[in-house]
Amino acid sequence: MNRMSHSTIEELLRQIDGLTTDPKQAFELWIPQNLTWRGQPARTDVAMAIIGDKILGMGYKPDGFTEAEGGRIYRYKAF
User: For the chain, what is the domain count?
Assistant: First the structure.
């Protein structure tokens, strides 16, 4: 699978907003290794805090991740 190794946190938040998953269903989210926030490079811990807060607010919790070229695939499941 060919995935981009860079993106913006804003784009990921829009992608998360667009999820129409059944609350009982788990989902995966591609997180590139290089992210920006408001036009500036973002540290991974900061990016994951912003993204994680959004996902937790939707009723999901982390369920691990898989390393992949250019980033990670994070898994989330409902509480």
Answer: 1
Helix-helix angle 9-17:44-57, to 10 degrees:
20
User: For the chain, how far is it from start to end, CA to CA, in angstroms?
Assistant: 29
Grouped pLDDT means (10 residues each) for the chain, 79 residues: 78 90 83 95 95 94 95 94
CA of 59: how far to CAs of 2, 4, 62, 63, 68, in Å?
29, 27, 10, 13, 26
- Whole-model pTM: value is 0.85
Domain of residue 71 covers: 6-78
Q: Which two tokens stand for residue 65?
A: 């991740």
How far apart CA 12 and CA 59 sit, in angstroms, is 17
In a domain, 1, yes or no: no
